[in-house]
Write a structure and sequence with these properties.
By secondary structure, the chain is mostly helical. It folds into two domains: 208 residues, no CATH class; 74 residues, no CATH class. It is built from eleven helices and two strands. InterPro entries: ABC/ECF_trnsptr_transmembrane. This is Cobalt transport protein. It is a multi-pass membrane protein.
Length: 308
């Protein structure tokens, strides 16, 4: 699982976009499922997320999160019709239950549970995409310009988990080479063996903290205004990705409050597809598709890569 949590540079288009632009695009993929209620809008955003995973060559990193999201979504889809008794279209009458009463399975409850499952998978997929295509150092570097103390704390905290896991694995391998078998013996004996690992891990963490503090002091951290060794260039592709994500988010908010992206599940289902709903859905999909089309051109058209 730690391999999926680590960033892998594959030199894809979305990985080469400016950090602010790709964060705006991912924010649209995250906030649109939270804002919109229409099932077609939610399904469209989810499919765009799937396509973004494919074009970013991040299927291996995102698949465990997507599988987890599918299981949770199926659980929600099954649980909601059992607990929610609202809806006028009754599909099945069940026995009397102690707290709920007589079991009523309605079409509206099933549709609402399925829609919430799609929303949940879209949100999980947005976080998985962030983990796969956004470099954590670039994010902390972006926010360190106006919140350098908080960025330092976040950077050290995110570095702690993989470094601690690596130190623990190394200590375990060293103990095994010395003849320690962690799977043999009783509970107290195995607990004593693992306590050795905790001692080694504590010592290595303290030594790492001292080394980090000495390195920061040698570089004059906090003594004066910080400098930046590497600056991200702003290119035409960055403007296009930033505007596409921001436009999709603004249009989604407008469609939601204007009533085009609303959908009522109870007490009876609304009409699924009106002409005005489909128009705004198409505009949002086109905005979200623009970076993915550029990603395809980046991969197959060297001339376009040189221009953007």
């Amino acid at each position: 699982m730690l391999d999926q949590l680590s960033y892998k540079d594959k030199n894809t288009f979305l990985q080469n976009v400016h950090t602010a632009a790709i964060l705006t695009y991912l924010a649209a993929l995250l906030l649109l499922p939270l804002i919109l209620a229409h099932p077609l809008y939610l399904l469209g955003v989810f499919l765009i997320g799937i396509l973004a995973v494919v074009v970013s060559d991040a299927a291996q990193e995102c698949l465990p999160f997507l599988v987890m999201g599918i299981w949770v979504a199926v659980f929600v889809m099954i649980l909601n019709p059992l607990l929610v008794q609202n809806g006028t279209t009754v599909l099945f009458y069940g026995p009397e239950l102690p707290v709920i009463g007589r079991l009523r399975i309605t079409l509206e409850a099933i549709c609402y549970g399925a829609t919430m499952g799609v929303r949940l998978m879209a949100i999980i997929l947005a976080f998985a995409l962030y983990n796969a295509i956004v470099h954590p150092d670039k994010v902390t570097g972006l926010f360190s310009r106006f919140a350098w103390k908080s960025s330092l704390v976040v950077s050290l905290a995110t570095r702690m988990i993989p470094s601690t896991a690596r130190d623990l694995s190394n200590a375990r391998e060293v103990q095994q080479m010395r003849g320690v078998n962690f799977s043999s013996g009783g509970f107290r004996e195995r607990l004593k063996k693992y306590s050795w690992l905790l001692e080694v891990l504590l010592l290595s963490s303290l030594e790492g903290s001292l080394a980090t503090a000495e390195a920061m002091q040698a570089r004059g951290f906090g003594s004066r205004r910080r400098t930046c060794y590497n600056r991200e260039l702003v290119r035409p592709r960055d403007y296009l990705c930033f505007l596409s994500g921001l436009s999709a988010l603004i249009i989604g908010v407008y469609a939601r409050f204007a009533g085009y992206a609303n959908f009522s599940y109870y007490p009876q289902l609304d009409t699924l597809a009106a002409a005005s709903d489909l128009i705004w859905l198409g505009v949002i999909i086109l905005c979200l598709l623009l970076p993915l089309i550029l990603s395809w051109g980046w991969k197959h058209w060297p001339y376009l890569r040189s221009k953007i």
